[in-house]
Write a structure and sequence with these properties.
This protein is mainly alpha-helical. It has a single domain, classed as Glycosyltransferase (Alpha/alpha barrel), CATH 1.50.10. Helices cover 45% and strands 6% of the residues. It has 14 helices and 9 strands. The strands form 4 sheets. Strands 5-8-9 form a 3-stranded antiparallel β-sheet, with helices on one face. Helix 9 crosses helix 11 and helix 12 runs antiparallel to helix 13. The protein is globular. The two termini are 33 Å apart. 52% of the residues are buried. The mean pLDDT is 97.
Length: 458
């Protein structure tokens, strides 16, 4: 990336305002025309949202987008769309025992509504607040119950692949364990054993930082500072590490960039929150200083790798080791071309990473990270990546879902996916806009834990 050191957050306000204007029409189109009997909307094909029966992990982004739209614009109809969707559709996501995505679905919906209430943006009664709290408590315990032990010490929240699988993206579902725990809840197991979700969350963060992120310390032949592996595999019989793997990337020895972005954003968020938690509240076996150090190292490593491995204007390929990357002439030295016809980009990874870069920059007072985040955001809000066509239901173009599985739509005459959107990409562009909007307006920072009165940003 060639970082633009001249751009300021307020310079992006006209582009952010334009994005919100476009966003409202997209949400309304999906609400009016998408047939929810088909399942959750996942990604677009020829500009129309479609579903994919793999796992139910995107519906929270659908209704969460409506809630964020209301937050940004004050338009009441979007709050109603979000609330009705949450009430009518989200309950099964609270007790879904087969996914690692509770932090995606339920923090984006129940969490956002409770946050808006605690921040004073919406006025609701205590019973409605308690409804959202109860949902988050339940979701946190269901997520925490997906647990595998690691040989020697600790463990992780296992992915939908099974108890052998540690996914890098689950770092962003740790939020739901934190919220549930700090709302006074706990997981109870056999014989009424009380299990701390805070402790499990911290162990999962430590495992992600240890295994999914590389630090140039010679772990294997492809060990590079900040590189991530999508999945790490463990022997379920004894909890020993076996091998890196990739579910959606090219290989376990290349970097799937959306996984990299999840790590960057998730580490930054957890660092932000855990710095606020008093040391004496940490479990006896886990030092606050030690875990903060691991998170900071992981966040900085992934941020550095992201900056090094994008186009000049901040957009990554879907995987840094894709099989045809060598055919791209000077990809890292020029602006991203989504129609390059050799390897697809993933703008959704950029939206997630930009938020992580901005958050980390504010925590560490790091100008490089801040300007990298703003550089990337400016590109995402440009005509090349923002969906200006009112017949296209997506907001952020050139998102990729699962390239190895061949699920992404490839337009006629092209060889790679392009021109389409995803529910997570659209949501995270909106979330990024909320974050920057608050910075521009000099308001308290937007954060998932603002629904906890004792920890919220003020």
């Amino acid at each position: 990336m060639i970082i633009n050191f001249n751009i300021k957050p307020e310079d992006l306000k006209p582009a952010i305002d334009r994005m919100w204007a476009l966003s409202g029409a997209k949400i309304s189109s999906i609400h009016q025309h998408y047939d929810e009997r088909l399942g959750s909307p996942v990604f677009t094909m020829e500009g129309k949202y479609t579903t994919r029966g793999w796992t139910e992990w995107t519906q929270g982004f659908q209704y969460g987008s409506s809630i964020l739209q209301f937050e940004a614009t004050g338009e009441q109809q979007f709050l109603e769309i979000g609330k009705e969707g949450v009430k009518g559709k989200m309950a099964p996501h609270l007790t879904h025992t087969g996914v690692h995505d509770h932090g995606f679905n339920n923090v984006s919906t129940y969490g956002n509504l409770l946050r808006l209430a605690e921040e004073g943006t919406i006025d609701i009664g205590e019973w409605e607040k308690e409804f959202y709290r109860l949902a988050l408590k339940v979701s946190g315990t269901v997520q925490a119950n997906r647990w595998s032990n690691i040989h020697g010490h600790g463990g992780f929240l296992y992915s939908f692949n099974g108890p052998q699988s540690l996914f890098v993206d689950t770092i962003r579902s740790v939020r739901i364990l934190m919220l549930s725990h700090f709302m006074g809840h706990h997981l109870q197991g056999e014989n009424d054993v009380i299990i701390s979700m805070f402790e499990r969350g911290l162990h999962h963060i430590a495992a992600t930082a240890r295994y999914n992120v590389y630090y140039g310390e010679g772990r294997d032949s492809f060990d590079e500072w900040g590189r991530t592996a999508h999945e790490y595999l463990f022997n379920v019989n004894d909890g020993r590490f076996r091998a890196p793997n990739a579910q959606q990337g090219f290989s376990g020895f290349t970097t799937w960039t959306r996984g990299l972005a999840w790590a960057l954003c998730g580490f930054a968020e957890e660092l932000e929150f855990l710095q606020k938690v008093p040391g004496e509240m940490f479990p006896e076996a886990i030092s606050k200083t030690e875990i903060i150090g691991k998170i900071k190292k992981g966040a900085q490593a992934t941020a550095d790798f992201y900056i090094k491995n994008t186009s000049s204007d901040g957009i990554p390929l879907w995987d840094t080791g894709g099989p045809n990357v060598h055919l791209l002439e000077d990809f890292f030295g020029r602006a991203a071309d989504p129609y390059n016809n050799i390897e697809p980009l993933d703008a959704s990874a950029a939206a997630i990473a930009a938020q992580g870069l901005v958050r980390l920059a504010l925590l560490l007072d790091n100008k490089d990270y801040l300007q990298a985040g703003l550089t990337t955001t400016a590109t995402l809000l440009s005509d090349r990546f923002l969906s200006l066509n009112d017949r296209h239901q997506g907001l952020l173009l050139h998102s990729v879902y699962h390239y190895p599985n061949g699920w992404d739509y490839i337009p006629e005459g092209m060889k790679v996916p392009c021109g389409e959107s995803s529910m997570w990409g659209d949501y995270h562009l909106r979330e990024l806009a909320i974050l920057l909007g608050r910075i521009i307006d000099k308001k308290p920072l937007y954060a998932f834990y603002n629904c906890l009165p004792e920890y919220k940003n003020v």
